[in-house]
Amino acid sequence: MSVLSKTRCLPLLMLVAGLVNSCSDFLDVDRPRDRITGDQAFQNADTATRSVTGIYAEMSRTGNMIWGYTTVYAGICSDELVYTGTALSTREYFNGVIDPSNDLLEKWFWTSPYELIHHVNRCLQGLETTSALPPAVKNPLIGECRFLRALLYFHLVQLFGDVPLITGTDYTVTSTLPRASKDVVWQTILNDLGIAKDLLSSDYPSAGRVRANRWSAVALLARCYLYRKEWAMAEREATALINSGLYRLGTVENVFRAESQEAILQVFPTMTGYSTMEGFLLIPIGNVRPTFELSSSLLALFESGDKRKNAWVGTRTASGRTYYFPHKYKQRPDFSVGFKAGEYTTLFRLSEIYLIRAESRMALGEMAGAIEDLNVVRKRAGLSLISPAAPGSNEGVLADLIARERQVELFAEGGHRWFDLKRSGHINNIMRQAKTNWKSDYSLWPIPRAQIVLNPALKQNSGYP
């Protein structure tokens, strides 16, 4: 399947439930009378809103990288998770050598995000050209779409490096695009987030924190600037969010709850019986060895008395041995009558923002401020505070402390560890110890072979056949 194939794209239709998908050749086919065309969808506020909320609905379905899959598969690529199962397609990620023909690679990490990007682009096209909606209605929806596109491209760039940059909906164009450089994609991400930040309100557009608001865009901006080493910009965005007063650190037990006050953006589960994909994939059933274990190197980082270890690390005893697994999310799928999801996959939360600001302040030479932010996270975890005199002016020591805190605070969340290893420049040294067959080329995943067959303009990443 090419970046968007005509046979497996998402048809743009309005369902009673409000789920709307999109397809590149929608206008080329006969329109069933019970369906609403792309143009019609943006003629009133209700259908326009449902077009956009349909994107969120797709994000919480099986096979979407935003909903748990990056957590697990980037986790086993890194040094934080150990895969003990037998599925060959999954073991490739743990071994560090992913075959370009890997079916999970194409379905979950390439096709799924590009289908969502097409949906976003279709909504943007309709919203930006319609004259039927007042600015108060369409501008926030445009902001949500810009944010979602930036979020998807952020993940694609982290996983693959250069990727096709698709901002239109014409299949004859998108199906033959080559990969754009990371710098070009980054600029699109930052531009989208700047627009989203301007158009979105600080208030959430619906109940809960499951649709993007202004601070969702600010959170991703802060993360992007951190990754790009634009320290002053990262510090500015993080400070604005922290000072907004809308978010606070609660107890470690409540971080991932649906009603969490720390959450900036969560994924609302739309699949019956499911809370989070993390809960489904990571929690073992019964006293058996977990399929995804926490590595011994990660477990060794927890200091004595760290509340996070008790709250976020689960154990199972099998054959007389104790195994440890990620237990940030507590709910496995439950199909009993009356089940209510009590946890939502959390994409952005306040503690990450404090750590972003700590790292940025350190890089800017503001050591006292960096230590202050680091201590906010440590205090919540029940740990002793870092004395300003401890690191002194040694940026290297403080950098290690912040990196360590990111590992124990953000483990098994959205690929943070894998992404941190790459941006830090330490990935080769660390991964050579974790994977016996490690090569530097493996820091980027391969472009799916089927995509290259369909679109020869796509060139494979170095080190892959």
Can you describe this structure in just a few lines?
By secondary structure, the chain is mainly alpha-helical. 48% of the residues lie in helices and 6% in strands.
CATH topology of the domain at 45-281 and 342-428: Serine Threonine Protein Phosphatase 5, Tetratricopeptide repeat
Rg result: 22 Å
Total of DSSP H or I helical runs spanning 4+ residues: 19
Strand order of the largest sheet: 1-3
**CATH architecture annotation name of the domain at 45-281 and 342-428:** Alpha Horseshoe
Spans with pLDDT under 50 lasting ≥5 residues? 5-36
Biggest β-sheet strands, sense, barrel: 2 strands, antiparallel
Q: Per the principal axes of the C-alpha atoms, what is the gross shape?
A: globular
Question: How many β-strand stretches?
Answer: 6
Proportion of residues in helical segments: 40-55%
Question: What's the level 1 CATH class of the domain at 45-281 and 342-428?
Answer: Mainly Alpha
- What is the residue-mean pLDDT, rounded to a whole number? 91
First-residue to last-residue Cα separation: 19 Å
> What is the oligomer described by this structure?
single chain
Strand-residue proportion: 5-15%
